[in-house]
Amino acid sequence: MTRDNDRLHDTISNLSAQLADLRDQLKVATALRDDSEAHLSVTSATQMAAAAEVARLTDRLANATKELESVRARLVSAETERDNVTRALGQSTEKCTILTAELDSMQLRLAVLEAQVSGARKDLGGEAEQAEELSMELLRVVQRQASVEKERREAWEQVRVLRMRLKEVETDHRALAKENERLVARIRELQTRPIRAGSPHASLASETFLSVAERVETELVGQLKSVQCELDAARARYREMGAAYRNRLQQYVDKTCSLNLANEMFSTIKTIVDSMLNDVIMSLMESEQHAHSCLGDAQSRLVAAHDLVVQLLHLAVILQDGKHMSGSDELAKLLASHQQFEKLMSVDRKQEPPATARPVKGGRVPDRSIPSAPSDVDATRKLAQEMIAKYIASTHSQLEQERSELLTRALVAEAAVKEWEAMAAKRNANTWQ
Q1: Global pTM?
Q2: Which residue ranges are recorded for the region named Disordered (predicted)?
Q3: What is the pLDDT of residue 323?
């Protein structure tokens, strides 16, 4: 019995010791639970603050995007109005050319009728009725000449008004283009946030920015080459047109040997010069439309590249705020998105021409002009923005230069036509005297 009691006492003492250990473990677990709840509350507050900041930036981005869309709509309407004014200017110029030709024919007809009237009065003094009919016809021709002259003045006035309107539309177009650039810069500023150098995701974001910079550089170089080829083709067409123009003038000079022959060839050379002027005007309009289409294509390609940069900047912002989120699940999603983007970029890399330098890891030759350090993200972003701005400035300057050259050629051709008209009128006056 005493042995059993001792065993029971030993068992009770062991159980008491185990109970004390369990109570100590319970206290430790309770303290850990309290610490976990406090840490969870702090993490939740941080997530709520980050979500509020993201919502505020999203609202500002949406407002700026709406304003950008309105400005782009106004820009499209301004371009449409400019095209309409240019088309009306071409029609008015063509009408002026037709009226000038009709006026010249009326002048020739008037000279012929005056000669007939004077001859009828000298040779047929008794035939007063025929002279009266010729006088009436002469009066009608004079009236028609006055009306044609009035219509020509009105047409030239309309051309002047349309040119002034075209200048106003071009001024509005340039102002809208500047506003568009300002809004794009503002949206890029809202979407771009600096990444801390100590962040564990800085290397991943830097690689993303490097990929974007390389792709944007490739696209911009390709676009610049295509626009340069189109401009070279346009210059070649203008050189051919100038050569044909000089050949036709040389043929006319060779054929014109005497004053009578020049008078007989007046209508022919007038038609030739008018056709050349119309060719120059139509070529000017076609070149302006082609330049506008090239500019629209380049802007659309630039907008697509900008959208890609925006998506990657959003990815970088999420990577920056990833340590405030709930760990593995969100980071796994981000890594999956980054892997998918790398797969898409690998397709473009396969289409690149083979490099002559020694390839590095990944099979690509690095561009020494692009920063490669993971902590040099700001320099990479600045380089991409400078490349985009440089491409836009060069494209606009080339198109404006081409347009000014075309306008100068048209004005020179118009001045040449007026000079030929004055010379022909002077020859006709000398002939009838």
Answers
A1: 0.25
A2: 346-378
A3: 42
- The Cα 53–Cα 59 span in angstroms is 10
CATH class of 64-191: mainly alpha
**Count of all residues that appear for the chain in the document:** 433
Quote the CA–CA distance of 205 and 212 in Å, as a whole number.
11
Main-chain dihedrals φ then ψ at residue 276, nearest 5 degrees: -65, -40
Q: Provide the Cα torsion 282, 288, 289, 294; round to 10°.
A: 140
Cβ atoms of residues 209 and 380 within 8 Å: yes
Residue 167, number of CB atoms within 10 A of its CB: 11
- What's the rounded Cα separation, in Å, for the pair 157 and 138? 28
Structure tokens at 201: 């995701």
- Residue/partner pairs of 307-312 with CB below 8 Å, 24 or more apart: 308/212, 308/215, 308/216, 309/188, 309/212, 309/216, 309/384, 310/187, 310/188, 310/191, 312/208, 312/209, 312/211, 312/212, 312/341
Provide the 10 A C-beta neighbour count for residue 34: 10
Q: Domain spans of the chain?
A: 64-191, 199-350+368-433
pLDDT in tens, 281-299: 676 667 667 666 766 666 6
**DSSP label of 258:** S
